[in-house]
Design goal:
The protein has 383 residues and is α/β, with parallel strands linked by helices. It has 14 helices and ten strands. The chain has a seven-stranded mixed sheet with strand order 3-2-1-4-6-5-7, sandwiched between helices. The longest helix is centred in the N-terminal third of the chain and has 34 residues. The chain is globular, with a radius of gyration of 21 Å.
Length: 383
């Protein structure tokens, strides 16, 4: 029995240490990214006219704040297009009110009556694009809040030859318990993106918080219609752009998304949808996320062999690595004021993270906006 406990403790300690190494690598990747920001912003005066496309459905948290931030951008020439499929969408009243408050902002509503695929957001974007005035296109979600210099910093990398798409990291604004657990996950996700950037020699995907590109690139990759049935449309657009021979870059600007005040059920379903999407698109890397919940493995190691000094050492190293990520990624890079304050929730986050990771292997069904789908090869299939 003692031998079995020792073997279990050794396995758990190794998984915990692997997780600590992964988080240490995330911290290093974040520091390296910040050191190279000057190179990414080498053309700050590249300010072509821009069309911002935002597909909305209903009222999201902090949508009013998000719209206001887009009307206060410090940029020479841009427009904001709001796409809706329902003419009675409650978001339209908010848009009209913002438009009256900011008459200087070129804010337009585009009605999108057609259903071009199972992804309603992408269906709207495909119908909005012909209405856009400018060659440079920016896409972000309806609840994304941006700083005044957002477009200046976003457009800068597109001035470099070979860059076909620019995307951004994001932080989560959270209040309740479950939403704060998701905010912690966003910081970890950002660290994973930066690790992938180093290990894969660059970014080969995009993030939905912001995508900036041109009509020419969109045409080369088949337009929005090509991903109208994809759940992770942002990821797919980046993959197709990289496959077409263009570079995808991370801009030196971070945006903010509002996280719903989830119930446990909503939190679980959202995490499971995210997990199964990643598993479907990057299966090998996803299997490696078994080490992404190091607090669980470190505690299990201590419980299995509480008298072994090396189990306690693993526990301490996990704590140090998680704090390092909170500082390097959450606080310094993402400017998340809650990153350190929420660290006491990290063990709980790891517990649910591991549970979601395990559950994701038992099926490929997801729930999205009240509908159930099966996800296969990145595409949504009706049940």
């Amino acid at each position: 029995m003692a031998t079995a406990h020792l073997a279990l403790a050794a396995i758990c300690a190794l998984l915990a240490l692997a997780g600590a190494v992964y988080f240490a690598l995330s911290s290093w990747a974040a520091s390296r990214f910040q050191q190279g920001l000057r190179e990414l912003s080498s053309s700050p005066h590249f300010t072509p006219p821009v069309s911002i496309l935002r597909s909305v459905k209903g009222l999201d948290p902090q949508m009013e704040l998000a719209l206001r931030s887009h009307c206060l951008l410090e940029y020479p020439q841009y427009e904001v297009l709001i796409g809706v499929s329902d003419r009675d969408d409650p978001a339209l009243r908010l848009v009209e009110r913002i438009r009256l408050q900011f008459p200087q902002c070129a804010l337009r509503i585009v009605h999108c009556p057609q259903v071009l695929g199972r992804n309603g957001k992408v269906s709207n974007l495909a119908q909005m694009l012909p209405e856009a005035r400018y060659h440079h296109i920016v896409v972000n979600d309806g609840d994304i809040v941006v700083p005044p210099d957002y477009l200046q910093r976003l457009m800068a990398p597109l001035a470099s030859p070979g860059v076909g798409m620019v995307t951004t990291l994001f932080r989560g604004s959270a209040r309740g318990l479950w939403s704060r657990l998701e905010a912690l996950g966003i910081s970890e996700f950002a660290g994973g993106v930066l690790v992938a950037r180093i290990l894969e020699g660059g970014i080969r995907f995009a993030l939905g918080a912001t995508i900036a590109t041109t009509r020419t690139v969109l045409q080369q990759i088949g337009g929005f219609e090509a991903v109208a049935d994809c759940l992770a449309d942002d990821y797919e657009l980046g993959v197709r752009t990289a496959a077409a021979g263009h570079r995808v870059e991370l801009a030196d600007v971070v945006v903010e998304t509002a996280i719903h005040d989830y119930s446990f059920r909503d939190f679980w379903l959202h995490q499971l949808r995210w997990a199964r999407t990643i598993k479907d698109r990057r299966p090998l890397q996803y299997c490696g996320l078994i080490v992404g919940s190091p607090w669980v493995w470190a505690v299990l190691a201590v419980l299995a062999s509480p008298r072994a000094w090396w189990t306690w050492t693993a526990l301490v190293l996990v704590g140090v690595a998680r704090l390092a990520v909170a500082l390097a990624v959450g606080q310094r890079l993402l400017r998340d004021s809650q990153a350190l304050r929420n660290q006491w929730l990290a063990p709980l986050r790891d517990l649910f993270g591991l549970a979601v990771w395990m559950a994701s292997f038992f099926g490929n069904q997801i729930e999205w906006r009240g509908q159930r789908f099966r996800i296969r090869r990145g595409k949504l299939e009706a049940l």
